[in-house]
């Protein structure tokens, strides 16, 4: 959860500003529409051209990893998908467990995406989505899945 961290300063701040400036609103919308179409899930996609608003929407839609897991599950051949009966997908009232499960789901998605054939260079680190440090790379990974 990026809001628990101290604000970045100096070179780290400059780097983060540069990464955030590369976020493309239209690309994020395309990714979300494609995920909705492939997974069959109903997703609320904001119709906005504001980078901050769209980045917030993109992040909150994908951060728990469930939608990403549903996407990759529909693309993988039968028997290679994700087992949604695992504890990882069960709701819990304990916040610490829920946060750990969200990270685990993102990790499961990344492992299955690599199994699907997405090059390692197009994957992202769990923290990029979970801590919201590089949503551009998350879009790149989703586009790479669409290409494979």
UniProtKB/TrEMBL annotation:
<dbReference type="GO" id="GO:0051015">
    <property type="term" value="F:actin filament binding"/>
</dbReference>
<dbReference type="InterPro" id="IPR050606">
    <property type="entry name" value="Calponin-like"/>
</dbReference>
<dbReference type="Pfam" id="PF00307">
    <property type="entry name" value="CH"/>
</dbReference>
<feature type="domain" description="Calponin-homology (CH)">
    <location>
        <begin position="25"/>
        <end position="148"/>
    </location>
</feature>
<protein>
    <recommendedName>
        <fullName>Calponin-homology (CH) domain-containing protein</fullName>
    </recommendedName>
</protein>
<dbReference type="GO" id="GO:0015629">
    <property type="term" value="C:actin cytoskeleton"/>
</dbReference>
<dbReference type="InterPro" id="IPR036872">
    <property type="entry name" value="CH_dom_sf"/>
</dbReference>
<dbReference type="InterPro" id="IPR001715">
    <property type="entry name" value="CH_dom"/>
</dbReference>
<dbReference type="GO" id="GO:0007015">
    <property type="term" value="P:actin filament organization"/>
</dbReference>
């Amino acid at each position: 959860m990026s809001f628990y961290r101290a604000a970045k300063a100096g070179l780290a701040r400059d780097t983060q500003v540069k990464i955030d400036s590369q976020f493309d609103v239209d690309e994020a919308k395309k990714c979300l529409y494609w995920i909705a179409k492939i997974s069959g899930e109903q997703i609320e996609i904001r119709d906005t051209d504001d980078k901050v608003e769209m980045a917030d929407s993109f992040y909150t839609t994908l951060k728990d990893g469930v939608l990403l897991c549903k996407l990759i599950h529909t693309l993988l051949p039968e028997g290679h998908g994700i087992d949604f009966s695992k504890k990882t997908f069960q709701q819990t009232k304990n916040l610490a467990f829920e946060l750990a499960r969200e990270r685990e789901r993102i990790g499961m998605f990344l492992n299955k995406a690599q199994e699907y054939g997405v090059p390692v260079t197009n994957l992202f680190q769990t923290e990029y989505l979970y801590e919201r440090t590089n949503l551009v790379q998350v879009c790149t990974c989703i586009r790479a899945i669409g290409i494979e």
